[in-house]
TrEMBL record:
It is found in: Cytoplasm. It catalyses: N-acetyl-L-glutamate 5-semialdehyde + phosphate + NADP(+) = N-acetyl-L-glutamyl 5-phosphate + NADPH + H(+). It holds the Pfam family Semialdhyde_dh. The active site is at C149. Pathway: Amino-acid biosynthesis; L-arginine biosynthesis; N(2)-acetyl-L-ornithine from L-glutamate: step 3/4. Catalyzes the NADPH-dependent reduction of N-acetyl-5-glutamyl phosphate to yield N-acetyl-L-glutamate 5-semialdehyde. This is N-acetyl-gamma-glutamyl-phosphate reductase. The keyword Endoplasmic reticulum does not apply. Its EC number is 1.2.1.38. Residues 2-141 form the Semialdehyde dehydrogenase NAD-binding domain. The gene is argC. Keywords: Amino-acid biosynthesis, Arginine biosynthesis, Cytoplasm, NADP, Oxidoreductase. Belongs to the NAGSA dehydrogenase family. Type 1 subfamily.
Amino acid sequence: MKAGIVGATGYGGLELIRLLSDHPEVESLTLYSTSDAGKSFENLYSHMNTVITQKLEEINPESMQERLDIVFLATPPGVSRELTPKLAGRGLKVIDLSGDLRLTDPQQYTEWYKQEAASEEVLERAVYGLSEWNQKKIKEADIIANPGCYPTASLLGLGPIIQERLAIPETVVIDAKSGVSGAGKNPNPLTHFGHAQENFQIYKVNQHKHIPEIEQQLKTWNDEMSTVTFSTHLVPMTRGIMATIYLKLSEPQTTEQLLQLYENYYSMHPFVRVRQEGQFPCTKHVYASNYCDIGLTIDSRTNRVTIVSVIDNLMKGAASQAVQNMNLQFGIEETAGLQGLPLYP
Ligand SMILES: NC(=O)C1=CN([C@@H]2O[C@H](COP(=O)(O)OP(=O)(O)OC[C@H]3O[C@@H](n4cnc5c(N)ncnc54)[C@H](OP(=O)(O)O)[C@@H]3O)[C@@H](O)[C@H]2O)C=CC1
Ligand SMILES: CC(=O)N[C@@H](CCC(=O)OP(=O)(O)O)C(=O)O
């Protein structure tokens, strides 16, 4: 495959380069940039010195359609909405890592993203790329809306219990925490070292754009689902997301039964690992890998379930899930290029 990355100079782009350079089925990788076209990649990022020596190129949809089989858009919101219609088709597949194509309702996008939505035609063509849950459609799609980092952790943690209708819908609370790289490469007041270091902050309370994305998918699993409480926190670490999820059960279950349900659902999915009873994952268990690790327990006093789901935001939350989706789209081994073990400690 001939692959291209728009936004190659960003954090998501860097991870895509790392994965695709090592991918057994990728024969060439072209890197695109709006601000650094013409410069050599190694000169911008010296950790790639002597390894990624090629020059960044200008975005040119026509020549990209001719040259590439797949293009990843690791770009801020608002870019894909314009670029995807010019790229997708004539044999070129698109995987968008931004939120532009995830919400099926354009009005909802405008409400939460505070900008114009993509055209309805593009939104209809885009398939939500939650790899473990949407494989059939992903395999046939030419446009993938790669899920957000928080939604990936939250939805993989909730999928089996929601689809089996075991939760009382209005009781779902997601308490999520992220490392600083979730905010991308540009510093801002929230992520500035002096503020983020040794600090633990809640942000975008009840206003995070991942709320409608999570609710949309929960409703496709169970039409009784409506709203969820979802909170985001910034943790002074570089990578990782932990979503701690609380809900009440609609009928009595044991922890063993629930774990068995999760085991059954994910037994065919090598990147979701369910912990044994009494064990819970932490973010370093999945660091730099495509894994999502899940632990859960039921408090018999309150009849409440606690589910803990961890991912690396830049990997399963962005770049490696995008590569997993590419593998599915091209009918190759789902795990190709993704077998790197987690980095620990
Ligand atoms: N960081 C994370 O953990 C995750 C990020 N995402 C999403 O993925 C996308 C990329 O995120 P991330 O890599 O963190 O962001 P960064 O800010 O680190 O990088 C974004 C890149 O986009 C390029 N860019 C900026 N403006 C334009 C434009 N108008 N047209 C084309 N390219 C442009 C820039 O490269 P250049 O100037 O060279 O063109 C920049 O390096 C975002 O939408 C983000 O929300 C999704 C999941 C997780
Ligand atoms: C720590 C931090 O700031 N995280 C980002 C993650 C969002 C993200 O990556 O957004 P999309 O994938 O939906 O574009 C945030 O909360 O906005």
